[in-house]
Amino acid sequence: MSEKGRKVVVFIAMSVDGYIAKPNGDIGFLSVVELNGEDYGYSDFMKTIDTVIIGRKTYDQVMEMGYDYPYQDKEVYILSRSERPEVGLPKYFKGSLKGLVDELKANPGKNIFCDGGADVINALLQENLIDEFVISVIPVILGEGIPLFKDGRPENQLKLIQSKQFVKGLVQLHYERIPTDQ
Ligand SMILES: NC(=O)c1ccc[n+]([C@@H]2O[C@H](COP(=O)([O-])OP(=O)(O)OC[C@H]3O[C@@H](n4cnc5c(N)ncnc54)[C@H](OP(=O)(O)O)[C@@H]3O)[C@@H](O)[C@H]2O)c1
Fold first, then answer.
1. Measured distance CA(31)–CA(116) in Å, rounded
2. Looking at the 3D structure of the chain, how many domains does it have?
3. Residue nearest to atom 46 of ligand 1 (CA)
4. CA distance 79 to 51
5. Ligand 1 within 6 A of 79 CB?
6. Is 165 inside a domain boundary?
7. CATH number of the structural domain spanning residue 167
8. Atom of ligand 1 nearest to the CA of 54
9. What pTM did the predictor assign?
10. Residue 54: what are its φ and ψ, rounded to 5°?
11. Within a domain: residue 111?
12. Does the Cβ of 126 fall within 6 Å of ligand 1?
């Protein structure tokens, strides 16, 4: 894939009122759309990426869930500002996000998955580093929680690539950011 074609993509679920988790990190609200045999495009999406950028809190939570490791064969960058070993796996990263994304895009590869959470997504948004958003809207109002979008990000126009609705009431919105920085 060419440099131009390699994109940073967010693939995430949020409540109708815009939260990705309860204030304590609980994502139990996702269970309202659970359906045998339906993964809302996740496994197909995972085939389009070879790199994952993920916040330390989300990574820790994924590891605590006790599922099979979901990032097999992927290059994973766990963002953390605390002191971590610089070599070995998993790879922790605390440098410039623009530097990381520029370097990844300068090399051939598949797309780059930003797996969240909100802290990391908003850090990338600040620097216009997210190219596409696949947002699954879960039919629930959480009332409070960790908002997907924080105030203070740059304004951006989006182009709708696709919207899909599913029997459990999930609506999936796929947007591409129209670059303002080119
Ligand atoms: N609904 C969904 O689809 C979905 C998807 C993903 C996550 N979630 C939920 O979101 C919650 C976590 O989100 P969150 O926003 O609280 O945390 P997060 O983004 O997962 O992780 C935040 C941590 O990432 C590190 N970090 C953030 N920005 C950084 C930067 N620019 N440079 C270096 N390190 C950076 C810091 O780690 P240190 O503290 O180690 O310095 C920070 O504490 C969890 O409950 C998770 O389940 C939901």
1. 19
2. 1
3. 58
4. 13
5. yes
6. yes
7. 3.40.430.10
8. 20
9. 0.96
10. -145, 145
11. no
12. no
Indicate which atom in ligand 1 lies nearest the CA of residue 58: 20
pLDDT of residue 182: 52
Relative to the CA of 136, which ligand 1 atom is closest? 3
Confirm if 112 and 147 have CB atoms less than 8 A apart: no
CA 158 to chain CA mean position, Å: 17
Phi, psi of 70 (to 5 degrees): -80, -5
C-alpha distance from residue 62 to each of 8, 83, 122 (Å): 20, 21, 20
Total number of residues shown for the chain: 182
- The low-confidence residues of the chain, meaning pLDDT below 70, are 1-4, 181-182
**In b/e form, how buried is each residue of 117-147, taking b as 16+ CB within 10 angstroms?**
bbebbbbbbeebbbbbbbbbbbebebeebbb
